[in-house]
Design a protein that fits this description.
206 residues, alpha/beta, TIM Barrel, eight-stranded parallel beta sheet, two-stranded antiparallel sheet, binds the ligand O=C(O)c1ccccc1NCC(=O)[C@H](O)[C@H](O)COP(=O)(O)O, amino-acid biosynthesis
């Protein structure tokens, strides 16, 4: 079954809808400029609303050890998702003993990761548009034809510009084992819709 991640959870309603819809992963964005940013204390309060359920993924942009340490003091994370170099991913895995997913912006096969990278998985989307204020979560659709040739030995999630209306087609065209959404389940930047979350999970699972 296709793995589903709902990213940018920042309200009790969005958290509960994601749990009830049976998503595999939910993401907390620890990048202050993002409209989906949550403080570690806010993430902890949200996470405590359910025992178990979706694995908790923390999203960081070029994080230092101290930044992640500070978050982990408040909230337990199962997976770290990072915008970072392959070398930094190796260091983070060693330091935190958790799976680390690397976020990739891909516009050609030259952007595909090397086979000997130590990342545990990839979140793959288009590169950010010119002038973007964040490196991901910009609602830009990736090149699905290109990604139909992406076959890493690890888990990867297709991201970028997905929504309840196009996710089934995206899965069919790319053959991705998983999908990740943020903007496509929002009614405004940072405003998650429980209805759209439920519709997305249902459409992704077909
Ligand atoms: O969402 C953000 O604000 C964000 C900020 C900084 C780095 C990454 C960010 N988001 C990454 C993601 O949540 C996923 O790639 C996302 O599912 C795809 O984004 P979208 O096109 O908005 O669905």
């Amino acid at each position: 079954m296709t793995k589903v991640k709902i990213c940018g959870i920042n309200s009790p309603e969005a958290f509960d809808a994601t749990v009830q819809a049976g998503a595999d992963y939910l993401g907390f964005v620890f990048f202050p400029p993002s409209p989906r940013y949550v403080t570690p204390a806010e993430a902890a309060l949200l996470s405590a609303r359910a025992q178990g359920g979706p694995l908790r993924v923390g999203l960081f942009v070029n994080p230092g050890f101290d930044e992640i340490d500070a978050v982990l003091q408040s909230v337990s994370l199962d997976i770290l998702q990072v915008h970072a170099s392959p070398a930094a991913v190796t260091a983070l895995r060693d330091r935190f003993g958790r799976p680390v997913w690397r976020q990739l912006g891909v516009t050609s096969a030259a952007d595909f990761p090397a086979k000997d990278e130590h990342a545990d998985g990839y979140v793959v989307e288009a590169k950010p548009p010119p002038g973007a204020t964040r490196p991901g979560g910009n609602a830009v659709k990736a090149d699905w034809a290109l990604l139909s040739t992406f076959r890493p030995a690890k888990l990867w999630l297709l991201a970028g510009g997905l929504n309840p209306g196009n996710v089934a087609e995206a899965i069919a065209q790319t053959g991705t084992p998983g999908v990740d959404v943020s903007s496509g389940v929002e009614t405004a930047p940072g405003k998650k819709s429980p209805e759209l979350i439920r519709a997305f999970v249902k459409a992704a699972r077909g």
